[in-house]
Amino acid sequence: MAFSLPITRAIFALFRVPFFPAALTAILFAMLAEAMAFSYIALLAVDKIGMSPLQLGAFLSLSAISGIVVTTIFGHFHDRKPMMWPLLISLLAKMAGFGLCAVASEPWMLFLNAAVLFGISSASFSLLFATAKGYLDRTGEQTSAKGMAALRTCNSLSWAVGPALGAILVRYWDLDGIYVGAALLAALALAVVLVSRIKVVADTASRQRLTLDVLMSTAPAVLALTAFHTAMFTGANAVSIVVAQQLGSEADVGLLFSLCALLEVIVMSLFVFRPARGANRLLLLAGFGVFAVYYLLPIPWPSLTTLYLAQLLRATGIAIISIVGMAHLQDLLPGRAGIAAALFGNSANAGLLFSGLGTGLWAQSFGYWSLFELCAGLCLLGAALCLIRSVRR
To answer: pTM of this prediction?
Structure first.
């Protein structure tokens, strides 16, 4: 009872923040749509549209590159002048893009989707976070940290539920049903933003000028987060292949990822009630270390049991780096929530791009098991970049 009282107070404190419930709900629907749709996007491209492996790689790469460009532009607009149209356009593009996937029948339709609609829609993640942070920052450091952790937890919850929801729809409908459902969820996110009448607030008092020196000071952090996301996506590819082909079955692949997502929610929830003090670099280093250990464990003990047990390490690493890494960028760019969130989102887009380009080439030369060593090396590289930044400061 004594423990439940602080939890209740923390929850009520967050829900008293103006527009925070609306932002949280919009993130839940928007990320649930992405989790459902992108879990089956390769299957859609290959099985329904008939893309070749080369076309599939180009399609996924085009989507990532487009997302990086649009997210950067919209993040700059968010900080320069408070306006809602980038977020509204992004959510509308998400709804239209997933709807187009439901009726697409030719490769060119998906390529057009990747270049335009997917690129615009990818900005909604960073814009929703930046919008929420504008209100959270007015409540004090502790509440702001708890709020950002809650938003990240909601994102992980979406990725825990989304693929399972997609599996239900594909069983009773088909692939088209997944994308109709994703489009409806994106429409709900757009409706929440419109009905709540949420506005963008600008933190002009503490806003830092975007000089070349300021942007260069963020480079180690952005590179570290890019290494993290590259390891995360590459490792997911490696686990999918070695589990399905050697250690277990395709069902085990889904169970492993769902288990990790659920554990992420639990670990991230701890940050809601016990937030880290600012951008704790030691905690960030610990996150990279835990993530590296996760990739090193299956090398001497290559078994399905090892991977199941190691999901706690994976979830812990992802939770720590995601929450503390974003806080680190926000500390480096005070008053620039849009650019900070865009840099974090683009590190994920870049990681997805690099993993898609590098997984096949590396595995072709050294085998799929060698990807675990590569991912561990990327984690150590990320930790080293964090240390370099710490020494410079």
So the answer is: 0.75
